[in-house]
């Protein structure tokens, strides 16, 4: 048990419950199932991705126009996957590198203004983006994948591509950034338009 193998069962359970971030390859398959073409430009908003280039390879292969990520931003009908480093020169970024929060602010602005935003994990950064986009009137599409259901679909060796596409499309019809029913202790950052805000 000292080698950490006892944690695998706990990790698998968390994944089934949708409590783990989506991996880049999983995001690529979901986006393709939703109908995004390989020409879609994807911006990766994050620091280092766990696993580095090898972990990003499936996403890069399915969407060659990749920028830098781990919250994924979609800008349709452009040509590449891009990062801050690919959108700005070293000199332009040097001023921002003096403060980590400045780099995060760049990611925030790109995510906020993108045509489509995909929430790949449940962190505060992604919640704030989704919440802001909702608050501004849902003019831009925001997708919050059902990670629990997707983990079951990914783990089903008998599910064909057509069935997977149907699962993805049907599941996410109501997970595109529209207001959600609220309940006690609901995350205000993610859903700022709660009924209580209209009552004084």
Question: Which secondary structure elements does this structure contain, and how are they paired or packed?
Answer:
Layout: H1 7-16, H2 24-33, E1 41-44, H3 52-62, E2 66-67, E3 72-75, E4 81-82, H4 84-87, H5 90-97, H6 100-113, E5 116-118, H7 124-135, E6 141-143, H8 147-154, H9 161-171
Parallel strand pairs: 1-4, 2-4, 5-6
Antiparallel strand pairs: 1-3, 3-5
Structure overview:
This protein has 200 residues and is α/β, with parallel strands linked by helices. It is built from 9 helices and 6 strands, in the order H-H-E-H-E-E-E-H-H-H-E-H-E-H-H. The chain has helices at residues 7-16, 24-33, 52-62, 84-87, 90-97, 100-113, 124-135, 147-154, 161-171; strands at residues 41-44, 66-67, 72-75, 81-82, 116-118, 141-143. It has a 6-stranded mixed β-sheet with strand order 2-4-1-3-5-6. Helix 2 (24-33) packs parallel to helix 3 (52-62). It is globular. The chain starts with 6 loop residues before the first helix and ends in a 29-residue tail after the last helix. The model is unreliable at 68-80 (pLDDT under 50).
